[in-house]
Amino acid sequence: MTAAAAFPARANAQRHPALAEMPTVIPDLIAELTGEAGGGPIRREDALDLLRRHLGRIQSTVQDGFEAHELSGLAAARWLAALSDGLMTAIHHYALAMVPARGAVEMNEPPFALVATGGYGRGVLAPYSDIDLLFLTDQSAGPRAQRVVEFVLYLLWDLGLKVGHATRSIRDCMDESAKDATILTALVDARFLAGEKPVFERFAEVFTRTRQQRGLGPFLAAKRTERAGRHARYGDSPYLVEPNIKEGRGGLRDLQTLYWLARYAFGTQRMPDLVGPDSPGGGLLSEHEARAIRRSWDFLWTVRFHLHYVAGRAEDRLTFDFQPVVGARMGYTPRGRQDGVERFMKHLFLTVRDVLRLTRVLEPAIERAALGPPATRRHGDAALAEAGLAFADGKLVAAPPNRDFSREPVLMLRILKAARDRKLEIHPLAIRALIRNAHHAAAIRGTEEANTLFLDLLTGRDAATWLRLMNETGFLSRFIPDWARIVGLMQFDTYHVYTVDEHTIEAIGVLQQVERGDLTEAAPVATELVGQLQSRRALYVATLLHDIAKGRGGDHSELGARIATELGPKIGLTPEETETVSWLVLHHLLVSQTAFKRDIEDPKTILDIADLVQSPERLRLLLVLTVCDMRAVGPKVWNGWKATLLREVYWRVAEVLAGGLSVPERDVRVARARDAAAAMLAGWPDTDRDKFLSLGYPGYWLSFDAETHARHAALIREAEATKAPLTVRTRVLESRAVTEITVYAADHPGLFSRIAGALAVAGASIVDARIHTLTNGMALDTFWVQDAMGGAFDAPHRLARLAVLIEQSLSGRLRLRDEIRKVRREPARLRAVTVPPRVVFDNHASNTHTVIEVNGRDRPGLLHDVTAAISDQGLQIASAHITTYGVRAVDVFYVKDVFGLKVENDRKLGALRVAMEAALAPPGEGGGAVLPAPRAAAERA
């Protein structure tokens, strides 16, 4: 077979002159290596130099053609394989010339063939792929053959090539392939390269007979098992934001599996061979599906080639640092409000979805064509028959011959409901029909039966399973057109693990976990409240639509609320339900933003939410929706501390809605807190107790419970008795997954910043902080910290070191700037994610403080730099609320000026903004505030 015949898609490569001039088999190279003109083969060292130069020309020529956009990824992969064939042929000839036969026995050794297997056997190679070779013999390899094999392998290794290899006889191949599916798969791809072609032809005949005798069943089962294990290893979701384009679900390996199955069953070489009534199986693919396979194959190969060239190695995981580079190389530029990298990744995820669909379309068709049609049972179940459904192989299908999805689209929803209610499987051929007929879902939008069935599936058992199937088949995008805009949509950040559509389905799954009581320990309040809801259906629809407007620009909550208002009646919601859904979508971030960005001890914070919510039912709905949304973002987002903050917000707002807290009662609440603390100190002398009760300002008494006040009293009493200049206490709170650190020291400017710096050096991440200056001029600061994994900072030796670092920092003996630089930096793959710095001032969120919200890229020492900048401006920090979303830090500070007033002067705010933006800049770009020297009894900062 000629190279052109073997690789018909190479026609477009002729645009690259160097490739057009480079033959795939190179007689001149062979002649030079073997010394055909006389003089014998050249020395091995000279041969290596010659082969290295030729290999370099192959690699550079293909790379130049690819990067000049003269070759697509698939064409480049085929050219690289074809040109490598010439190299391998030349090496084979040279090896035979360099390893002559020794005596008559070796002269009569059985001949062998050099065979390409694996990806190389399929005729495609990535720039840094292994070259898989089989040294194939009629019988066991003789001494000379073994020496030739060894010579070839050492030569390839010295050329820097990675080689997978095996030496087997034809019988060995059959025996080993019966025991190992990996070997069997490699043989399916086997392609003759050089040597004795009759040996390979005999192998092909034997292998064809063996495949026919064994049948497709065992091979199909083995490939399905292998695929399931691979998906579990590389991420079972196809919509992970850092996908493995080769091994992940919907990647190249899944497409290759389809090729293997078709080739094993029918001996086909190309997917278009399965198109048309005269093709094997009678036309398993439509023209449209064959083109989709080709597009997906070419796109994924193009991404893989770029990824290998950018990484300079065999890299198949498309991590954050590679995504912008590969996207730009492929020509994806910003469009509207969408970044080029987000457009690129959406195309990738849509391609992945196409691969999943094509797998569901082709695999069952191959199985049926090879194993025979299923036995369909049309009678015996009146209810199913009435619904237009039947059984095939014990699984659900549309009842033939008159009921099908194209003529009766509502059958697509009926079969899902029947499968759920009866706990039955849907036949793969029925899923194939779902995919092929998904576009007919548009015909049943707004119909009463379709709406009833859809809402039943959305709110019923295993809803996430059925939504995921509707999404992957394309039904959901046709039934709800707005859904199509979030399919495959990713946000280029390190916070969200899934695409928007997959995150939404995950949220539905979490909601069902809450209802089942599976999250009683992790989310006890949500679990308790979900059973009290009166608007269950509205909650499910709101969860489905909460991110429906992402990627459109503007506030996705506001846009989503408008979409919900329009969509609600169309899918069968009542006006009341529609209003509730729209309100929930509009405010679905309210509780989380309040919990993580606002001081919930400030009465205005709670009263503002209460004014907005107004209804206990809506508050319950918001809390449950918030829990589901957060837990669906990714496995590392939820923790005990965040759960605690959400619970605190819920109970405080619920208290207001029940007629509790109001601003005039603040003094009463302070008095009650002081009385409770006094009761906890009942055994103390009156003078000691009264002295402690005189230390705190109102904000202090409202920030902690009576038990904490009592612990603070004991700490202060001990510090004053021993005249300790600094006291540090730590307490691990397992239920909240945090460690509480209390620092009692003389107040001075920069105290908060220096403590924050010491915590950064210790490897502790601050998640919340309360800063209090007492009437005696001492500071009582409380920090809640976690380790790098989001758990409590609880190792005893680390806690001991932490206290030492705080003392060294406050005494000036610790060079914070130098030590912070030594803290381990983030992985390189995350540095591509940019976070524009942003500083927002709010003088309305609190009646007593100016609220500063800071957005910036998280890094070791960021909080130290930002708080130092605030301190330098002469401001007092009353509380800090620290939240991290991937690499994005969102820190909120409640501050006053030196007179205890809000900061409302524009000039002062302008200077503060400049200082904080400088602190947000990365080190070396103007970032990093200058620390003030410690001064005892100075202004608080």
From TrEMBL:
Q: Which cofactor does it need?
A: Mg(2+)
Similarity comment: family membership: Belongs to the GlnD family.
* Keyword field: Hydrolase, Magnesium, Multifunctional enzyme, Nucleotidyltransferase, Repeat, Transferase
For this protein, the record's InterPro entries field holds: ACT-like_dom_sf, ACT_dom, HD/PDEase_dom, HD_domain, NT_sf, PII_UdlTrfase/GS_AdlTrfase, Polymerase_NTP_transf_dom, UTase/UR
Q: What is this protein called?
A: Bifunctional uridylyltransferase/uridylyl-removing enzyme
In alphabetical order, the GO MF annotations are: [protein-PII] uridylyltransferase activity; phosphoric diester hydrolase activity
Span list, region Uridylyltransferase: 1-383
Pfam families linked to this entry? ACT_ACR9_3rd, GlnD_UR_UTase, HD, NTP_transf_2
How, per the record, is this protein's activity regulated? Uridylyltransferase (UTase) activity is inhibited by glutamine, while glutamine activates uridylyl-removing (UR) activity.
Reactions catalysed? [protein-PII]-L-tyrosine + UTP = [protein-PII]-uridylyl-L-tyrosine + diphosphate; [protein-PII]-uridylyl-L-tyrosine + H2O = [protein-PII]-L-tyrosine + UMP + H(+)
Q: What is the lineage of its organism?
A: Bacteria, Pseudomonadati, Pseudomonadota, Alphaproteobacteria, Acetobacterales
User: SMART domains, per this entry?
Assistant: HDc
The UniProt record lists the EC number as: 2.7.7.59, 3.1.4.-
Description of its domains:
Has four distinct domains: an N-terminal nucleotidyltransferase (NT) domain responsible for UTase activity, a central HD domain that encodes UR activity, and two C-terminal ACT domains that seem to have a role in glutamine sensing.
Which residue ranges does the record assign to the ACT domain?
A: 740-817, 851-938
User: What job does the chain carry out?
Assistant: Modifies, by uridylylation and deuridylylation, the PII regulatory proteins (GlnB and homologs), in response to the nitrogen status of the cell that GlnD senses through the glutamine level. Under low glutamine levels, catalyzes the conversion of the PII proteins and UTP to PII-UMP and PPi, while under higher glutamine levels, GlnD hydrolyzes PII-UMP to PII and UMP (deuridylylation). Thus, controls uridylylation state and activity of the PII proteins, and plays an important role in the regulation of nitrogen metabolism.
**GO biological process annotations for this chain's record?**
regulation of nitrogen utilization
